[in-house]
Amino acid sequence: MSEDRKPEWSDPSEPENFSTSIKKGEEQEGQSIVIEKNIVYRKRESKDPSVEALVEGVLSGNRGQLARAITLVESNAEQHFHKAQELLQKLLSHSGKSIRIGITGVPGAGKSTFIEAFGTFLCDLGLSVAVLAIDPSSSLSGGSILGDKTRMEKLSRNPRAFIRPSPTAGKLGGVHRKTREAMLICEAAGFDVILIETVGVGQSEVIIRDMVDFFMLLVLTGAGDELQGMKKGIMELADAVLVHKADGSNKEKAEQTRKEYSRILHFLQPATKGWASKAYTCSSLKGEGIKEVWGVIKDFEEKGKSSGVFAERRKSQQRDWIYSLITDQLHYSFFHHPEVKLKLPQLENEVMAGKKTAASAVDILFNTFLSDQKL
Ligand code: GDP
């Protein structure tokens, strides 16, 4: 029976929203009881908690508030942007204490299986782990390579772990701004280890490298050709290469592949000053080599901290952050400028038809863009 319909047996003189009795509702978190015209409502509190409430929640490790804080920085709504920045400003001094680890590899390299095994191993050591993802596909197509699968089920149930699927791109900065800010929030919440995952398809490795302390590349065996063709650039970013799925009949081959990668790494520029990147084998299914990977990372951290390289990199990452935001912001403002949007298709056609040079088209667009900018 709907609440505003009188039962047949009621007094006809009673109003339509008649009620026989008012029971005191039980208050739940995020709800308050409202009585209006004899009807008891359970009113949900506004979904937007204050910045102070979020700061307090995040610092005390409250998962709900942590998730809300990340949602706020991921929001594409302009009014959330300023609130998010205020929140980050307040959390900034509490961040920076985690070790930040980036993990990349082609689809199918076993990244999620590895993170599940590695994350669980770290939780068993008593550490807390936050997993974030940068999904390059979401910024290009709006689709998602990483987000669709049911991933890391076991780790997601671990009370020491927090897994956040990748954000989608939008205005006011792409996925990397959001991931970087989500990372700061997780650090303020006290996570010991931050794992940032991305699919190795080019661009995103560079972005991830700029955010993390330690960067590793997951590769597979039997990839001799791939090894030849693999962009030297990606290998040069890695602090370690893990030859993954080194189990069963694949074990021997994995060892062979490891040697090949080690040989190549030996000739490359080191990704981190003073650190010799090496290749290792590992099996997430068998849980082999996982402990060793953590040993390598701890060694890296120790050496980097005592030499000062660790702090130096973090500082330069902070500086680069400004530039990546400027690039984001310029890109967004330019392509969303109403007149630029209007003129672009026509100019594009003219350039394609050979009637105009690309440079002169760009010149026109920039003059349009800059004409109403306050200088
Ligand atoms: P992602 O796309 O890189 O995240 O890869 P997934 O973690 O989804 O793994 C892809 C496939 O590789 C799955 O079928 C896994 O079961 C398998 N796989 C992952 N890790 C291992 C491993 O250590 N050994 C073996 N043999 N298979 C693995």
Secondary-structure blueprint:
Layout lengths: L30 E6 L2 E6 L6 H9 L3 H12 L3 H14 L7 E7 L5 H14 L4 E6 L1 H5 L12 H5 L3 E3 L11 H14 L4 E7 L3 H7 L4 E6 L4 H6 L2 H6 L2 E4 L7 H17 L10 E4 L8 H18 L1 H27 L2 H15 L5 H14 L4
Parallel strand pairs: 3-6, 3-7, 4-5, 4-6, 7-8, 8-9
Antiparallel strand pairs: 1-2
Guanosine-5'-diphosphate binds next to α4.
Q: Biggest sheet: strands, sense, closure?
A: 7 strands, parallel
Can you say what the CATH homologous superfamily of the largest domain is? P-loop containing nucleotide triphosphate hydrolases
CATH architecture label name of the largest domain: 3-Layer(aba) Sandwich
What are the segments in which pLDDT stays under 50 over at least 5 consecutive residues? 139-145
Mean pLDDT: 82
Basic shape: globular
Q: Helical amount among residues, as a percent range?
A: 40-55%
In spatial order, strands of the major sheet run: 5-4-6-3-7-8-9
Can you tell me the CATH topology of the largest domain? Rossmann fold
Ligands: guanosine-5'-diphosphate
The oligomeric state is single chain
* Share of residues in strands: 5-15%
> Strand pairing plus helix content: what structural class?
alpha/beta
**Strand element count:** 9
**N to C succession of SSEs:** EEHHHEHEHHEHEHEHHEHEHHHH
Our Rg estimate from Cα atoms comes to 26 Å
CATH C-level class of the largest domain: Alpha Beta
- Count of separate DSSP helical elements: 15
